[in-house]
Protein: ABC transporter ATP-binding protein
Organism: Amycolatopsis minnesotensis
Amino acid sequence: MTGKEDDMARTVSASEVAPTTYAWEIKAEGLVVKAGRRRAVNGLDLSMGVGVHGLLGPNGAGKTTFIRALATIARPSDGALELFGEDVRRARDLRQVRRRIGYLPQQFGYYRRFTVREFVEYLAWLKEMPKQDVPGAVQRAIERVGLADRADDKMKTLSGGMVRRAGIAQAIVNDPAVLLLDEPTAGLDPAQRMQFRELLHELRADTCVVVSTHLVEDVAAACTDVALIDEGQLVFQGTVADLAAAGTGSDVGDSDTERGYSALLANHRRPV
Ligand SMILES: Nc1ncnc2c1ncn2[C@@H]1O[C@H](COP(=O)(O)OP(=O)(O)OP(=O)(O)O)[C@@H](O)[C@H]1O
């Protein structure tokens, strides 16, 4: 890219430069991603388009590693991964892809002396958002997570649940086409979880949201579909109703969705 083209790219928002030629926002085929020496994602086939996708799986299933690969932080070691139709293993410059992604890591760092507003502004700057759009986008993101009354308080004065909501605000500030949320409801109280579900409902019409969670009930309430992974592979992808229908009265769980989850996992792990 020439310097001039680069300057032009900086003056348009991520949604304006969206190519329309791809079928899926996310497409993984035979994807392998290592965490340390372990193949934490081990031959994953999974496609996701616009909607809210619950990413379920037991501890160590590979959810975080997959999300890190989608955030272009962990590099795949085999297979294919496309974001917006772009092969991330071959792409020479991932900045265009990254501008269109929002990411809430499971654990994230921040300057404790930053105010909530400064924290969200900083991420907007990292995403190379047009300068004139930043104040409005930051205010809107903070309002959407219900932190408007704390916007000018320092991060170090917030509760754990508020910090997580500030993390969600920084993830949505650039109006991402793909939003990656790793355990977003950890530490949220019931009222905050309800508010978060409402936010997902708003986003589902025009954003590809991936929500990793242990809480099957969060998925049932807010997701358009579910992907269940185990040992780095896809076990099931379908609607919440399909998930619920997979269980029987004898499977472990307090609800149809939990019983479906247990049944699919047990079936996958059953020796052949
Ligand atoms: N840095 C690392 N070095 C070695 N192994 C790792 C590393 N990070 C993760 N792993 C291993 O890779 C596997 C997948 O981990 P990952 O964190 O992706 O799973 P997860 O589904 O997100 O789990 P959880 O639900 O507990 O967060 C696990 O067996 C984990 O122990």
